Amino acid sequence: MQLPPSKARDIIDLIKEELKHKFLPLLRFQKILGKLVFASIAMPGGQGLLSPLYEALKRTPKLIKL
Predict the structure, then answer these.
(1) Residue 19 CB contacts under 8 Å (≥ 6 apart), including other chains
(2) What's this model's pTM, rounded to 2 decimal places?
């Protein structure tokens, strides 16, 4: 199973754009995480790769430091 190249490129571009900032609002971070969760479903062990991102959400801060 594989993401279509256009969808993979969209996710990569989104991440590159957001990494230019030091902080992200919580809702923006959750939106990106949702896209990554969807993309990682087909990848064996993909959920484990997202553990650090889930860790950032434990305290439900208003801003997420990148």
Answers:
(1) 66
(2) 0.78
